[in-house]
Each structure stands twice: as structure tokens, then as C-alpha cells.
Amino acid sequence: MIHLAVWDLLPAEFFVSGLASVRLPFAVTRCRSYQALEQLLGGEVDVALLPTLDVLLHNDQVDALPAVALSSWKHPYARLVLRQGFLQVETLALDPRYAQEAFIAQVVLKEHYNQTPQPVAYEGATREELLAGDEDACLIVGNDAPTLQTSALVLDLGQEWYELANYPMVWGLFAVRKGEGSPALVKALRRLAKAADEQRDVWARARETIPELYTYFLENLRLRFDDLAMASLTELREYLFYFQITDEVPDLPLYTIPEDEEDEEEDEDEVPLL
């Protein structure tokens, strides 16, 4: 049995929905995105969906699998609320545990709008607590972000990244502990992604969601680790260096399937490109 950790977020739930239609040896554990790395390195799971930032900052401890990447052109699960629009953005309230979303917010505000707000950390704060603060802006992340209703200006971080980089934002990669990748594991993840994608429309319709989310799951959420995902990862790696998060452009620790073990039927397991 392969122990797999995914986020308790609806996009990740879509990925594992494939288990309803295909038999694969996965036992699924759900956790917050910021808990996944600890579970993987602690030996609690064999493979985990990690925030891309965690993979890049811990590239000496993990290997990303060239199987599936969770990316999107838009992402209603991470939103920036600007109380006064761009008239004043000097402070930004956020939950520091969502480090990846905080970094992307910093990048798009600086690169798109020439704004460099001072982060104000509220660890564990709810959506309502962040919205009720005195800061000029706040970052809302999680399953309750899509239903946010406010008269303030709201930015979708996924859309902002796409408009900045021209590629979909890669929110998560499936990773194993260093040196523990295998062709069988890559194939199993690809089969799971394919099974989920084949039921995409049915799954999206079955969710009691707002129309915006139905469109998101049908047209924006991507599962394929392809050239678009790789190009986006290159942009992200360069921004980590440019914003001095790392001393150099970090390597992407990508597991490589040995040539003599490449699946001749790999094309059958490809996930359609969105």
C-alpha cells in the first residue's frame, strides 16, 4: 500500500476522486498544504502533494515526480483583498503558514502594481479575522476563499501569476523523499490523474458549488506535468532568486525514470492538456 498525502482543498480532492473508478494501491491522508512536507520527511507517508515552494526550498531532501502537477490559469482558492484598491497598499495581513501564496502575492504586487506592502502575520487567523483587520490588504487562502463577498477590490492570485508569467501557476508537485522515486509510482499517479480527468465534468457537476467554481474545475484546473508547467516552474525559480529568497536559482529536484524502464504505453496514461 502506498500512503499518499494530499491537501484538504477541493482541487486536491478532485485529483484523488479518480480512486472511485480505478483500483490503485493508495491510502490517502488529507492535511493542510503546509503540513505535507513534515508528514513526508517524518515518514508518515510515502508520497505527498507539496507546495511547489517547499519542493524548491528543500530540493536536497525531496524529489518531485514527473507524474502530475497541480496547476491552474486561475485560482479562486487564493485571493488578495485590497481595501482601498491601489491607492494605499502599505500593509498586508496574512497567515504565514501559507508561505507559497504569500510569496506569489509579494511578486505580483511588486511586478504588476509596483506595491511592496509590509507583511503582518496572523498565524491561524480565520477568513473573517483577516478581513476584519486594519491592514490595507489581506491574503485569503483555503476552501472558503471562493465564496468571499466584499465590496473591496479582489485579485485572483492564479490569474495574476498567469498575466505576469504567461503560464499557469504550479501550486503543487507530488514528491517523495530523496532517492525513493520509482517508475511504478510515477505510473500509478498518472493513472490516478487520468481517471480523475475522465470524470471531470461529472465530478464538477456533483459538487454544490457556485458557477465560478464549476468553470474552474472544468476549464482552469490542470493535472498535467508538461512543458507549460515546466516553463512556469522556471519563472518561479528565477523569482525566488530575484526576490532574494534563495542565494541562487534553485534546482528543480526531478526524479528521472531510467530509460530501460520507460513504459512503452506511457502515451495511454497521458492526461489531456488544458
How many beta-strand segments? 11
Number of separate domains: 2
Strand content: 15-25%
The top level CATH class name of the largest domain: Alpha Beta
Derived structural class: alpha/beta
CATH superfamily of the largest domain: Periplasmic binding protein-like II
Q: What is CATH's topology name of the largest domain?
A: D-Maltodextrin-Binding Protein, domain 2
Q: What is the count of DSSP helices, taking H or I runs of 4+ residues? A: 10
Strand arrangement, largest sheet?
2-1-3-10-4-11
CATH architectural arrangement of the largest domain = 3-Layer(aba) Sandwich
- Unreliable runs, pLDDT <50, ≥5 residues? 264-274
Radius of gyration: 18 Å
Keywords: Lyase, Menaquinone biosynthesis
Protein name: ABC transporter substrate-binding protein
Organism: Rhodothermus marinus
Pathway: Quinol/quinone metabolism; menaquinone biosynthesis
Concise synopsis of the structure shown:
With 274 residues, this protein is an alpha/beta fold. The protein contains 10 helices and 11 strands. Helices cover 35% and strands 24% of the residues.
Task: Characterize the structure shown.
This protein is an alpha/beta fold and 274 residues long. It folds into two domains: 168 residues, Periplasmic binding protein-like II (D-Maltodextrin-Binding Protein, domain 2), CATH 3.40.190; 88 residues, 3-Layer(aba) Sandwich (D-Maltodextrin-Binding Protein, domain 2). It contains ten helices and eleven strands. The strands form two sheets. Strands 2-1-3-10-4-11 form a six-stranded mixed beta sheet. It has a five-stranded mixed beta sheet with strand order 7-6-8-5-9. Helix 4 packs across helix 6. It is globular.
